[in-house]
Design a protein that fits this description.
44% of the residues lie in helices and 17% in strands. The protein is built from 11 helices and 10 strands. Strand 1 (6-11) and strand 2 form a beta hairpin. 43% of the residues are buried. It binds hexanoyl-coenzyme A. Hexanoyl-coenzyme A (HXC) is lined by residues 28-29, 31, 67-72, 88, 109, 111-113, 135-136, 139, 143-145.
Length: 262
């Protein structure tokens, strides 16, 4: 029996291959916890250092890329703990250190931290059953892994406000129209199509690909750090509210939350 929270394999027959990382908590719809993010970060850095790898793909299951940060873990957190442990900043953003292209291959739910993880990737290829959202507001917090900053950059302020303030989900057509998704493919072809895109990238010049990625990220992420730092302080502070406790308890208890507005 394996307790691997991610599974890795390589694909392709060229000089440089594609690394495929599968998030592997299927029973929890790949809800993201610190242990998984530690393993994901270590794998990403190892593949980034490996000269035989030209591109990295992150995927989930047919049902979920990732349904968010693990609410059962977060339900126990309080302000001092998330502040002291530097929750998210400590180990959830390792992906941003990777110089090779990283493609998110998304089927099913990409919610909360799952949507934020996909938005940290460079290309987002989505199955026709993919659904995106930042529903954190429904459990008394806000997006805390870059969502309040990257979502408006990707889809514009109006749609980002709509999604973040109501917590509604967006289907893949809306997500593609809005600019969040690079390509939509049939669900049963998601990996084949994504690996084909990755193979194209693997055959190109690695240095120019890495530098092109860096330049586009400069355009996309300029001024972002201030926004993220601000977001993180606000995110941590929400663990001091009663409504965070109530929102998460209600989810885990499979009941509607009774928010107290404090
Ligand atoms: C912990 C989760 C989970 C999550 C699902 N599960 N999402 N556990 N954290 N984020 C668990 C359920 O409790 C359930 O466990 C099992 O996975 C299957 O989920 P169901 O709800 O039974 O499936 P379904 O009815 O198909 O509904 C799917 C769903 C729903 C719509 C995705 O699970 C859902 O709303 N999940 C929460 C989505 C969410 O709020 N994400 C944002 C989290 S906050 P059992 O044991 O009952 O089988 C966040 C913070 C980001 O991401 C900022 C920091 C990173």
């Amino acid at each position: 029996m394996s307790d691997a929270l991610i599974l890795t394999e390589t694909h392709g027959d060229g000089e440089r291959r594609t690394a495929l990382i599968r998030l592997n908590r299927p029973k929890q719809l790949n809800a993201l916890n610190d242990a998984l993010m530690d393993q994901l970060g270590a794998a990403l850095l190892a593949f980034d250092r490996d000269d035989a790898i030209g591109c990295i793909v992150i995927t989930g299951s047919d049902k979920a890329f990732a349904a968010g940060a693990d609410i059962s873990a977060m339900a126990k957190f309080d302000y001092m703990q998330v502040h002291r442990d530097d929750f998210i900043t400590r180990n959830w953003e390792t992906l941003l250190q990777v110089r090779k292209p990283v493609i998110a291959a998304v089927a099913g739910f990409a919610l909360g931290g799952g949507c934020e993880l996909a938005m940290m990737c460079d290309l987002l290829i989505a199955a026709d059953n993919a659904r995106f959202g930042q529903p954190e507001i429904k459990i008394g917090i806000i997006p805390g892994a870059g969502g309040t900053q990257r979502l408006p950059r990707a889809v514009g302020k109006a749609k980002a406000m709509d999604l973040v303030l109501t917590g509604r989900l967006m289907d893949v057509q809306e997500a593609e129209r809005a600019g969040l998704v690079s390509r939509i493919v049939a669900a049963d072809k998601l990996l084949d199509e994504t690996l084909a895109v990755a193979a194209v990238i693997c055959a190109l010049s690695g240095p120019s690909v890495a530098l092109a990625k860096a330049c586009i990220n400069k355009a996309f992420e300029g001024g972002l750090r201030d926004g993220i730092d601000y977001e993180r302080r606000v995110f941590h502070s929400l663990f001091a509210t009663e409504d965070q406790k109530e929102g998460m308890d209600a989810f885990l208890g499979k009941r509607a939350p009774a928010f107290k507005q404090r």
